[in-house]
Amino acid sequence: MRGRQGDQQVAEDELGRGIKSVEIFGTVLATMTGLGEGPALADIAAAAELQPALLRPYLTSLQRTGLLDADGEGGGLSFGPLVARLGRCRIETLGHRYGFLPLAEEIAATEDLLVGLVFWSGQVATVAKVVPSRASLNINLRPGTVYNVTGTATGRTFLALSDDPRVAARARAELAGDATLPAIGDVPTEDALARMLEEIRTRGHAFVCDAYFPGINGLALPVRDEGGRLLCVMTLVGTAAGFEKARAEALAGRLSARLAQICAAPQAVPEPAGPSDGMLDGGLPATESAAVPAERRGVGSAEIAGRILAAMALSRHPRKLKDVCADAGLVPAKAHGYMVSLRRTGLVEKVPGSPRYRLGPVAAEMLLARLQSFDAMVAARRLVEELSRETGMMCFLSTWGTFGPVVVELVRGREARHTDIHVGRTLPLARSATGRLFRAHVSADVRAPALAAEAAVFPDLAALSPAPAQLETEGAAIRAAGHATWEQRGPIRLRSLSAPIFDHNGGIWFALTLTGEMERVSAEEPALLRTLLAGVERISADLGYTVPR
After folding, report:
1. Spatial separation of the C-alpha atoms in residues 201 and 149, rounded to whole Å
2. How far apart are the first and last CA of the chain?
3. 361-373 vs 20-32: helix axis angle to the nearest 10?
4. The domain that contains 247 carries what CATH number?
5. Rounded to a whole number, what is the largest CA-CA distance in the chain?
6. What b/e readout covers 89-125, taking b as 16+ CB neighbours within 10 angstroms?
7. In the Cβ-directed half-sphere of 351, how many Cα atoms lie within 13 Å?
8. Is 20 in contact with 40 (CB distance < 8 Å)?
9. Number of domains the chain is built from
C-alpha cells in the first residue's frame, strides 16, 4: 500500500496502535496528490494498492465529508472543499511559526520583489502563495503554478536539499523525458545539473539570471523547521536590471541568516483569547458535504476521521486533543487511535516539543493538487456566459494588469447598450464598478503605479477621483458589502455590479461585472446580486478560499 509517513518518519512503536481503516483513508488521500487531474476509481485503487471493491465505500465517505468531489462530466474524482480549509490552515500555521509569511510580505514591500512560497505536492513543486511587488513583471506566476525540479532555481533547491524520495523520482522522469505533468523550466544535462546542485548545497541558495522568463532573475531560499527538514522554498523574483546577481547574493546572505535564526527558535503561535475560532455544531457544515445518497455504504471510521480533520482546521493555532474532540463530537478516550493513524499518514503531526497537534504536510499537498487541476479562467468564462444568458445583460471578466484592471472576457447579452467596454480595455480605478472593486482589494503599493499611469493619461479622471481618506472609507464599505457598484449617467444610463473571485490566500484574482440599463438593474438589484455573488463564491471556494470567520 502506498502511504506517506507523517511526523518525520516516526517509528510505529513510538506512535502506538492505530486504526487500519483510518490509515487506508489517509493513504487514499495521500495517493491522490500524485495522480493528476480527475483520476478514476480504478486509477486510485491501483496507485494505493487496494481492490476497487474495498476502495468504493471509502470514496463514498470521502465525498460525504467534503474531502472529495465527483466530476460530473469526466466521471473522475477531485479534492473537495474541505481540502481548501485544511491546506490553508496548514500553510498559515507553518507560516507564522517559522516566520516566512510575514517575511514574504516584508520583502515584497521593502525590496520591491515578487515573492512566491513554493511547497512540494504530489509530483511537483507547486506555488502556494504569491506576494506581488509594486513593479509589474508580466509573468504568469500564481498559486497552483508548478516548477520543474531540474530546470528552475526553485525546483533545484528542492532537489538539492529535500530528502523526499518523490523529488528525486521527478528529477529522473524529467531527465528521461517521461515527466507527465508539464511545468516551468528547461531540463539541463545531467553533468550541468550535478554542478548546480553541488553549488546550492555549498551556498545554501540558488540564483538564475534571465532564464525561463526573459528579462527576469530569480533567487530561491530554503525554509526549514527546527529539525532541519525542508518545509518550503521562498522564491524572490525581479527584473534582470533591478535584481542583478550582486544584489541577490547580498540579500540571500541576510535572509538566510534571518530564516536560520527563526527556525532555530520558532515562534509560538499565541492562543486565541476565547474558545476555538469556530464550532462544528455536530459535524461538517452542510455546504461542505457532498450530496451523496444516504443509502450508499461508507466507512464510519473514515467519516469520523474527516470530522477530526475539519475540527483541526477551525484554528491556525496548534490544538489540544480535548479541544479537537469537543469540536468533532468525539469522546477523547476514543480519539487516540485516530490520531495515531492520521499522524502515520501525514495528515496530522505533533508540534515539536509540545503535546499539541497541527495539520500535517499532506493537508497542504491536497490543496495544491486541487489548485493544479482547477482552471479558474475556464470556470470564470463559463460563469460570464451563464450570467449573460440568464439576465440578458452584458457580463465581463477582468483581471489586474500592468496599469489596472483589464477586461479579458466579455459577452454583450441580448439587452446590451452601447458602451466602449471591450476585451483588452483597462478600466478606470475610481469611476467604474470593476476599478472600485480592485482598488478596494489590492494593496496601496500595487495600485500606486496604476493610479499614476491613469493620472498621466487621463488627468480629468484624476481630478474627479475622491480624496485618499474617502477612498479608504469607500474601500472598507466595498469589502464589507462583497461587491462594488457604479452608475453611468447621461444619454446612456447604465448601472454595473462587480464582485470578486478570490484565491485560497484571499487575494483577488478576477472581477466579474454585470452591466445593464440603470432602471432595470436598480429594480432587480437584490436578485441580481444573489445570482452574481453565488457564482463568484462558488469559484472562490474551488480555488480554496474560505470566508473569514
Report:
1. 15
2. 38
3. 40
4. 3.30.450.40
5. 79
6. bbbbbbbbbbbbbebbeebbbebebbbbbbbbbbbbb
7. 20
8. no
9. 3
DSSP 179: -
Same domain, 256 and 274: no
Residues contacting 7, CB < 8 A, separation 6+: 15, 343, 344, 349, 350, 360
Grid cell 495600485 is found at: 447
Amino acid at 24: I
Domain boundary among 228, 262, 296: 262
178 and 253 in a single domain? The answer is: yes
Is residue 393 included in any domain, yes or no? Answer: yes
Q: Following DSSP, what letter does each residue of 255-324 receive, concatenated? A: HHHHHHHHHHSPPPPPPPSSS-S---SSSS-TTTS----TTS---HHHHHHHHHHHHHTT-SS-B-HHHH
User: Does 246 share its domain with 305?
Assistant: no
Compute how many other C-beta atoms are within 10 angstroms of the C-beta atom of residue 53.
9
CA distance 20 to 9: 18
Question: Could you read off the pLDDT of 276-326 as tens digits, one per residue?
Answer: 443 333 333 444 445 566 667 889 999 999 999 999 998 888 899 999 999
All 3 cell numbers of residue 512? 466579474
pLDDT band at 264 (very low <50, low <70, confident <90, very high): confident
Rounded to an integer, what distance in angstroms lies between the CA atom of residue 155 and that of residue 321? 36
Length of the chain: 549
Q: Are residues 387 and 527 in the same domain?
A: yes
Three-class secondary structure of residue 208 per DSSP: strand
Whole-angstrom Cα distance, residue 420 to residue 255? 48
- What whole-number distance in Å separates Cα of residue 506 and Cα of residue 396? 21
Residue 1 lies in a domain: no
Whose CA is closest to 427, among 438, 415, 442, 411? 438
Task: Name the residue among 501, 213, 515 with its Cα closest to residue 378.
Answer: 501
Non-local (6+) Cβ contacts of 147 within 8 A are 118, 124, 125, 126, 127, 154, 155, 183, 184, 185
**205: which 3 cell numbers?**
541558495
Structural domain includes residue 199:
yes
Number of H helices, E strands in the chain: 20, 15
Please check whether residue 5 lies inside any domain of the structure: no
Say if residue 391 is in the same domain as residue 367: no
Residue 138: pLDDT band by 50, 70, 90 thresholds?
A: low
Q: Which residue, 208, 214, 213, is CA-closest to 192?
A: 208
Q: What cell does 296 get?
A: 450508499
pLDDT 10s digits, 221-262: 999 988 889 999 999 999 888 999 999 999 999 999 999 888
Measured CA to CA, the distance from residue 311 to residue 306 in angstroms comes to 9
